[in-house]
Structures are given as C-alpha cells and as structure tokens.
Amino acid sequence: MSRLEGRTDRGSRTIAATPEDVYAALVEGERLEAWLPPEGMTGRLEHFDPRPGGGFRMVLTYLDPTDAPGKTSDAQDVVDVEFADLVPGETVVQRAVFDSEDPAYAGTMTMTWSLAPVDDGTEVVVTATDVPSGIDQAVHEIGIASSLANLAAYLERP
C-alpha cells in the first residue's frame, strides 16, 4: 500500500474548560495518559519530557485486538511523539512515529492541537497531517473524536 502524502484527518470539540486547563491536559504526563487512549484501548507512558524537542513514548493496548490488529504487534500500537511546538493556552504540535515494521505505517504524522476560547469553554481542533496510509481515515477520525470525548469527560468532571 502506498503512502498518501499530504492526507489530513481532523476532529474538533468544544470543551467546558479554559484553554489553559486544556493545554495542561496535553502537556502533563499523568493527565495525558488518563484521557488520550481512544475507546477500546488503554495507554501507558514509557517516558515523558514536556518541552519543545522533548516528547513521550506511549504504548496503546487494544482491549480486544480481534477486529483491530495493532501497528506494533497484534494487540498494541507503540508511538514515539516529539513536541515540535508548545504555545501555552494556544497550540500543541506533536510529531508522531509509529513503532512498526509495516511500511504502511512509516513516516512522521504531525498532530496539531489548536485551542481557542469560546463562550462556553475552549474549541479544540485536532489536525493530523501526513497520516500514514495504513491508518484508515474513518477509523482515525473516530479515534480522534473518542480522544476528544475522553478529554472533555476528564476536564468537565465535577
């Protein structure tokens, strides 16, 4: 399968929290680990360095890998993420590389998290560019929406 250069996947959601609170959830390891894994997965950080040029390694494990084989192994996706840019309360830019021997998952995907204040909280827009061709677009956008729902639930809890 060939890589689709320039493919972009997106998701967005308004979250009842300040841009500063959303930003903190994106750059604090324990918080990120709590909400980032999409539905049907658990996540574990192997390391976390929240600064430009730093990053993290996350191991995502499928609760049921039967219908969704992982990129790294049958049950897991392992991703190395570099923080390319951090603008407090506004933007987090991540460069993600999947640990996979399958060339369909090769390359660096850029994930940009844009935060904008709105009347009822923060509009969070996620834009994924240069998405590897092995990642189904519809499934990826469902995963982005799931992570955004998790983020909202995490930040909006009483």
UniProtKB/TrEMBL annotation:
InterPro entries: ASHA1/2-like_C, START-like_dom_sf. It holds the Pfam family AHSA1. It comes from the Bacteria. Gene3D superfamilies: 3.30.530.20. Residues 17-156 form the Activator of Hsp90 ATPase homologue 1/2-like C-terminal domain. SUPFAM superfamilies: Bet v1-like (SSF55961). Belongs to the AHA1 family. This is Uncharacterized protein YndB with AHSA1/START domain. It comes from Actinomycetospora succinea.
